[in-house]
Amino acid sequence: MASDRAGTDAATAAAGPAPGGLGGPRVLVPVLVLLATVVAVSSSVGAPLIPAVADAYDAPLHVAQWSLTMPLLVGAVATPVLGRLGDGSHRRAVALSVLGVVVLGGVLTALPLSLGWLLTGRGLQGFGLGLMPMLIATAREALPPDRARRTIAALSITVVSGVGLGYPIAGALATYGGVTLAFAVGAGICAVALLAGALVLPKASPAPARRFDLPGALLLGAGLAGAIVTLSEGENWGWSSPRVLLVSAGSVLALVAWAVVALRTRAPLIDLRLARGRLPAAGHVSVLLTSLANYLLLGSVPILVQTPVSSGYGFGASGLVAGLVLLPFSLAGMVAGPISRRLGERWGPRLVLPLGALLMGASLVLLAVARGHLWMLAVITAVAGLGISTVFAAAPNLVVAAVPPRETGSAMALNQVLRYAGFAVGSALTATVLAAVTPAGGELPAEVGYTVIGLLGAGLSVVTAVLVWLLPGRAAAQPPSVAPRASGETVRA
Questions:
Q1: What is the reported pTM?
Q2: 64: nearest Cα among 174, 203, 189, 195
Q3: Distance between CA atoms of 42 and 190, rounded to whole angstroms?
Q4: Counting Cβ atoms within 10 Å, is residue 406 exposed (0-12), middle (13-18) or buried (19+)?
Q5: Number of domains in the chain
Q6: Residue 138 domain-assigned (yes or no)
């Protein structure tokens, strides 16, 4: 029976896309990468636009920062929900519906409405981040094992390569046409992606329906939202204020309750049992902490570049220049992805993942001590791109290798939740640090805030490298495979 199932799974993987999409792997792979890139760009392109949003809506920087934090927070909550709704035969319909929501969000951001409507649109765009587990599950199911492994790695680094390429374009549009034009062009690109997905995405293989874990979804959403709000508003509310204490305590209780529910539910929103074992633990830890460190850098560098020269440390540059400073982040990420994949095949993830974390840490050390020139900031973002892409290319295969094919979506949902939660926390923490060093009645943060951000992120990166070195042990000496496994067999480190 087990061998029959293994043979069926292997034949399905090698057969190419199921009915419902146009073309074979040659068409499917680029469309999957396009969709991942578009949703990554639309959700995170707010980074170089934060000062422009603050000016356009006459809002403080920490409030404008929500134009970046909001989609990341929504993405963290939506990812497991959409992963479950997209299980089995409903995957194509769910993916296209999500793309439609992303387009609607783009329309709201492009209209000359209030800041509240802008943030609502940005939140709707965050739903697109929940597509990633479905895209990875599609690749694993519709492509041969070797090509599936390469495609999964490519999808994992689109968060790096896509956002970096979108930054200078968004910065240029905002500089010469305003914030609404930048978001309007993004909405148009999302509409093109929706059309491509409708034409090419295949139908998934039939699978038994599983009960939707509504309590888990509500508890996880409340817990993550409470944590991000606490970090974002704690400085303004007062860290010892009743509001902060109440929201933070409620967040902790909600997350603990969610974990208890997930472990006791037969079909939880995210099966935490799939995270057991050293291999998946290393993949999840590396993604969470490196994502947090990454957005400490991405959330602060555009603000630093656009800070007026009168501050004594800023460059007074435009949004276009801020986007160009971030371009090396993307270019280095595209180079690092294939290289890290080859290094992983040769040396195993136990060396590759700590290397990526240390590169991320090196970029943040440079931010703390050597940020006096624009060209140096470009070097810093390039090093960060190398580091984050190295981690993102290696970590998912650790997670995928430890679960049977049918659990790919659920296992990757946790990994993606941790990724986007790290992004959102990093963005919120950036705003908190800069708000904390802004003098009372002043509009600009003190320069020491960037030193604190750099040292904090570097410390997190070193902790990540140590943990990822220790967790896999000898079990990670050989690179994992995404080949289907017989009868639900899993790898345990």
A1: 0.76
A2: 174
A3: 8
A4: middle
A5: 2
A6: yes
Q: Are 190 and 70 in contact (CB under 8 A)?
A: no
pLDDT of 350 over the 70 cut: no
Cα–Cα distance measured from residue 92 to residue 20, given in angstroms and rounded to the nearest whole number: 9
Which structure tokens are listed for 122?
């940005």
Q: How confident is the model at residue 13 (pLDDT cuts 50, 70, 90)?
A: very low
Distance, CA of 233 to CA of 73 (rounded, Å): 15
Alpha helices in 348-485 (DSSP H): 349-369, 374-401, 408-436, 448-470
Domain containing residue 337: 12-212+269-488
Amino acid at 268: P
| Average pLDDT in the chain | 80
Check which CATH number belongs to the domain holding 157 and give it.
1.20.1250.20
DSSP secondary structure, 92-113, as one string: HHHHHHHHHHHHHHHHHHHSS-
The 10 Å Cβ neighbour count of residue 455 is 15
Same domain, 171 and 221: no
Residue 406 has pLDDT above 60, yes or no: yes
In percent, the amount of the chain with pLDDT more than 90 equals 21
Q: What DSSP state is assigned to residue 413?
A: H
Residue 405: predicted pLDDT? 67
Check: CB of residue 280 under 8 Å from CB of residue 410: no
The Cα–Cα gap between 220 and 398 comes to: 24
Residue recorded with tokens 């090509």: 147
pLDDT tens digits, 15-30: 444 444 565 667 888 8
Residue 403 has pLDDT above 80, yes or no: no
Residue 91: CB partners within 8 Å, gap ≥ 6? 134, 137, 138, 203, 204
Q: Which amino acid, one-letter code, is at 231? A: L
Q: Could you tell me if 74 and 100 lie in one domain?
A: yes
In the numeric block, the tokens 């990812």 are attached to 79
**Residue 352, class by beta-carbon neighbours within 10 Å (0-12 exposed, 13-18 middle, 19+ buried)?**
buried
